[in-house]
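WARN retry 2 of 3 for item q-0093 after timeout on previous attempt; input resubmitted unchanged.
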Amino acid sequence: MKTHSTVSVLIPAYNAAGCVSRAIESALAQTLPALEILVVDDGSADDTAHVVAGYGSPVRLLRQANAGPAAARNHAAREARGEWLALLDADDAWLPRKLERQLPFTGDERVGVVHCWGPPGGGQAPDQITFESLWERNCIVNSSALVRRAAFQAVGGFDEDRALISVEDYNLWLRLLSVGWNVATCPEQLHEYTPAPGNLSRQFERFARAELTNLAKLERLPEVTPEMVRRKRIAIYEEYGRHLFHYRELGAARRWLSFPLRNEPSPQRLAWWLATFAPPAVLDWRRRQGQSVSA
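OK item q-0093 returned
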């Protein structure tokens, strides 16, 4: 097993004064301590830097002009000394035994990523993660991941395109698998995930556009066929359209659900699209009766 001194924790922080302490303290509380905890203040307008600076070693504050979470993680990775990079978002936290439980999976030199199960209800990872299974669904939660620094450097780290914000980790996992690195799963939930606050319809549409940008970038990989791209694009429109429908953002849902209906029509897709014209009160009544298109 690799020793704890091989781990550098990377925390990007933007206007995170109210939550970053929880992330840092969860990293400090590990039963196998990390070598260092690198927090990158990504051009915050609040007291993030002041909060982070209040911690002593092994916490280190790095600063940069606002460039997004991918650029912040890359900045930290360039400064890191550990063989393994432990990713942690500023609004998430780890359980105390996370590193202890994951480090035994790092011995195989072909393993480039070690992750653990996500929150309940999110669907667990398959026993073996392949490029094909990950293409179907991203089952690797960013704040659960340990990434071998050699693997990270081999693919150039995170893509810093701001259009990928929220899916830049998924982009990285697929690129790593594409060049032959393996993913190991620690079959436990070892972190606490905090959903992002804010307007849900805007979030869903932003996530969906990021997914489509990611798809355009990844279609160049040798494993990806035109049919895989076509089906993935339809799946993205359908998934986010149904999310928007669930939250009664019916105009936005109609726009997103029209794409799968046009490109691969079916009676079920027609029913979903037509349901976006129904009054919300009727949909809510049907939901209460257990008869709605979406729970």
